[in-house]
TrEMBL record:
InterPro entries in alphabetical order: AraC-bd, Homeodomain-like_sf, HTH-like, HTH_AraC, RmlC-like_jellyroll
Keywords: DNA-binding, Transcription, Transcription regulation
SUPFAM superfamilies hit by this protein: Homeodomain-like (SSF46689), Regulatory protein AraC (SSF51215)
Transcription listed as a keyword: yes
Stretches assigned to coiled coil: none
Domain of life assignment: Bacteria
Originating organism: Metabacillus rhizosphaerae
Protein name from the UniProt record: AraC family transcriptional regulator
Domain HTH araC/xylS-type: 179-277
Length: 278
């Protein structure tokens, strides 16, 4: 197993490269940054917002900020992937028209890029250059790596603008059924929800729901519900002046103490960390 990990001081740029013989996914499942997941080799199942997608060698998934996601298939072993997290402030780099250039990123919650061979070779070259910059850490390596990432994003956005968006089918009817449950949670997280009540809503047993929810999403029911609630709380902390003792109720927690404990477990920080970042 071989891996590299770089994160800058203000957490606006992260690069993670890994050749793995087993399942691995970073602990954080949503970010304030855009995430680029490039599968260099192997095959993965990817839970993204409310559905499971099959990602093949050469595919790139670009995920907008604060979209819940996770790789799920622990039984598929050998793979290599590059993950880059980049904040919007790094995309500008003195170019005020960056939003026009990278338009697809700001119009969709995620995009899946499957390029023809010529563009795949260019993406592979850029990816290896990013990895090399992070490994060697020559003067200016962070800025240089960011310019390489921007080149990669431009290639992906050009491809998306020039081709029709593929409709990705669920791997099985069971996956689609769990996607319905996930969409229900996404729309009702602010109310009191339990495994039993949601199972009753969808006319399945709690055992069935618990087992297949974990299989499809990679999360337990409670873990997913908590992540959705914390994701929404984080957005409120970053974008509003609503007090913490009101936010916890708005996102479905029963007490501010429990909210604080879960928030720290999910994000690694206390809630006020994000309020101070304004």
């Amino acid at each position: 197993m071989k891996s590299i990990l770089f994160q800058n001081a203000d957490e606006t740029f992260t690069v993670s490269h890994r050749k793995a013989l087993s399942h691995h996914m970073p602990a954080n499942h949503f970010h304030s940054t855009f995430e680029i997941f490039y599968l260099i080799s192997g095959k993965r199942e990817f839970f993204l917002k409310d559905r499971t997608l099959v990602i093949n060698e050469g595919d790139i998934v670009i995920i907008s900020p604060n979209i819940l996601h996770r790789t799920t298939n622990t039984e598929i072993h050998k793979h290599e992937r590059l993950i880059v997290n980049i904040h919007e402030i790094c995309m500008a780099l003195g170019n005020p028209s960056y939003r026009n250039i990278l338009q697809p990123l700001f119009e969709q919650e995620y995009i899946i890029v499957r390029c023809p061979l010529q563009e795949q070779l260019l993406i592979e070259t850029l990816s290896q250059s990013i990895i090399q910059e992070i490994q060697l850490k020559k003067p200016g390596f962070e800025m240089y790596a960011q310019t390489l990432v921007l080149q990669l994003l431009i290639i992906c956005c050009r491809h998306v603008q020039q081709t029709s968006i593929e409709q990705i089918e669920s791997p099985s009817p069971m996956h689609e059924r769990i996607s319905e449950v996930v969409r229900y949670i996404n729309n009702n997280y602010m109310y009191e929800l339990s495994l039993q009540s949601v199972a009753d809503k969808f006319y399945v047993s709690p055992y069935y729901l618990s087992r297949f929810f974990k299989e499809v999403t990679g999360f337990t029911f409670v873990e997913y519900l908590n992540n959705v609630r914390i994701k929404e709380a984080k957005k409120l902390l970053e974008s509003s002046s609503i007090k913490v003792n009101l936010i916890y109720k708005k996102v479905g927690f029963g007490s501010v103490t429990h909210f604080g404990r879960v928030f720290k477990a999910v994000t690694g920080y206390a809630p006020l960390h994000y309020r101070k970042r304004e």
